[in-house]
Amino acid sequence: MVNNNGNGKNVKVAAIQIEPSPDGLTATLNHTEELIRLSADKGAKVIALPQLFALPWFPATINSDNFNLAEDEDGETISFMRELSSKLDIAIVTPIFEKYKDKYFNTAFVTGPDGDVLGKYRKMHVPQIPLWEERSYFTPGDLGFTIIETPYAKIGIQLCWDVFFPEGMRILALNGADIVIAPTASAFEHSSSKWERAISASAHANGLFVMRVNRIGIEGEQSFYGRSFCAGPDGEFLVKPAGSLEGVIMAECDLNVIGTVRKDWVFMKDRRPDTYKTIIGE
Q1: What confidence tens digit (pLDDT) does each residue in 243-274 have?
Q2: Domain 10-280 has what CATH class?
Q3: Which of 52, 106, 216, 248 is deepest in the core (most CB within 10 A)?
């Protein structure tokens, strides 16, 4: 069953382009707070941070010492964001290196205006390629493609590499997501158009908003290029890709547009799930 949404809400969403401070986690969180407060002052109710935003890009290499960077849900980062969400009456999407029991995940938490953790998503598609040696650290996600209900919109999350696998975005759309947040750690600007095409195509095919928020800064061999943007349900840029500097990218998402676009572009209605068994190996 497809949820056509269109609940009459306008939601301001902010993507924060930022790089980790050389002075460590606490300094990064304090500076991030400044940009979150700026976003909230401009009316943002959902604020998103890049993949592993508060840490150096440690998956560029394989080093067992990096497991010391992991935190659990009660660690400094999520505790900080819970308090800030409550103070500012907002939802914050915060990606961290999560330690859970004896496993480690690449996880995005969503904290809400009551100071609670509203939900989390663990990255499903984990690459192992030069400079993104992520399988050496992260267990593939075990929570599925979760919908996280905030007071402002139903959101889904796709972390970086996930956006090239269309199944996840489709499941989120079928389950009623209004907005998908896509925190990334993409380097080498010559590849930026590929990410923009993939994300915009998914937004259109599924009739929802996608906010991509990317890292910035030069770390070792990688130059994280930013270019955060928001694609609308019609696949067009609601907010065009930004530059490569620190800053806040704001998008006003009219959730009524979801239903309007899906009436014109009836991809969801014309699906043939009875013919898709090959995808799941049946």
Answers
A1: 999 999 999 999 999 999 999 999 999 999 99
A2: alpha beta
A3: 106
Side chain identity, residue 182: A
Residue 173 contacts residue 207 (beta carbons within 8 Å): yes
Neighbour count for residue 63 (Cβ, 10 Å): 12
Q: CA nearest 53: which of 41, 65, 71?
A: 71
User: Residue 41: pLDDT above 80?
Assistant: yes
**Quick one: which of 171, 172, 125, 167 has its CA closest to 153?**
172
Q: How many residues does the chain have?
A: 282
- The closest alpha carbon to 231, from 220, 222, 240, belongs to 240
Q: CB–CB of 212/218 below 8 Å?
A: no
Backbone angles phi, psi at 160, to 5 degrees: 55, -105
> Which of 215, 78, 92 lies closest to 160 in space, CA to CA?
215
CB 171 within 8 A of CB 180: no
Q: Domain extents for the chain?
A: 10-280
In contact, 131 and 161? CB cutoff 8 Å: no
First to last CA, the chain: 21
What token pair was written down for 273?
Answer: 């799930």
| pLDDT tens, position by position, 98-147 | 999 999 999 999 999 999 999 999 999 999 999 999 999 999 999 999 99
